[in-house]
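> example.struct
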């Protein structure tokens, strides 16, 4: 065996080791989008070597035997399979990308009076242990959700917010959408977050609030009907609020 052939075999082993190492590193990481693209790369590599080596080893043209373009069909399957399996992650990244194109040039934030009405209403609902979800629009329009709910177009007041979330109200299960000083709609339903790190007792309101915060730059205030706890969801995270001052601090920072 010549030195060139030995070196070539050693190089092939090193390349194979690197591919396996990189593959394991990527597939055990949390970068789902990278996994999808790397799956495409490995699939194309697999088809290339299969087409090249299969004919060399067996001297058989598999496409002539099967009667159709086997390798093109295999590439199509390799391309579609990760997309189908990872569809939720692709949708998430596409929605994040769409935020850049879905911004209002101007937006109206609520007045100080609106902030206080929202805070007073959630504190009252918390004491009564009545569940609530109030979502405040910022740059990204929530019009698509508003149009599929009950249009209100009323001024934000403590009394109106409480009346919407009372258990006997037909709108109490959905979210209220606030734009500026107006409640534009009630009974809105958002896509639930697909994150898996929730406690088992986490309700649909919290998942909905987290979901809309992942897909827009809105802020949501959630009142738990089980515990009366108040939380705020924005930028894909949920924070538990301890008192009125903390709620006001976050709301003031958001509504500027």
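> example.seq
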């Amino acid at each position: 065996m010549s030195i060139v052939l030995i070196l070539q075999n050693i190089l092939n082993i090193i390349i194979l080791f690197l591919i396996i190492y990189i593959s394991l590193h990527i597939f055990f990481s949390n970068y789902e989008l990278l996994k999808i693209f790397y799956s495409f790369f490995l699939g194309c590599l697999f088809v290339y070597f299969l087409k090249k080596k299969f004919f060399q080893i067996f001297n058989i043209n598999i496409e002539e035997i099967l009667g159709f373009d086997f390798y093109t069909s295999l590439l199509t399957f390799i391309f579609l399979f990760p997309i189908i399996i990872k569809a939720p992650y692709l949708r998430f990244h596409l929605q994040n990308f769409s935020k850049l194109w879905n911004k209002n040039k101007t937006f109206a934030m609520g007045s100080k009076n609106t902030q206080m009405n929202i805070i007073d209403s959630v504190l009252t609902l918390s004491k009564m242990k009545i569940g609530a979800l109030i979502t405040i629009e910022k740059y990204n329009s929530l019009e698509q959700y508003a149009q599929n709910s009950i249009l209100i177009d009323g001024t934000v007041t403590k009394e109106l917010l409480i009346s919407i979330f009372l258990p006997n109200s037909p709108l109490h299960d959905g979210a209220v959408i606030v734009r500026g000083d107006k409640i534009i709609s009630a009974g809105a339903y958002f896509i639930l977050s697909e994150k898996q790190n929730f406690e088992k007792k986490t309700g649909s309101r919290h998942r909905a609030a987290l979901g809309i915060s992942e897909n827009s730059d809105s802020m949501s205030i959630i009142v738990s009907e089980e515990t009366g706890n108040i939380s705020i969801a924005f930028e894909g995270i949920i924070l538990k609020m301890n008192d009125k001052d903390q709620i006001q601090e976050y709301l003031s920072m958001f509504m500027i």
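> remarks
Strands lie at 132-136, 150-155, 175-179, 182-188, 219-223, 230-234, 237-241.
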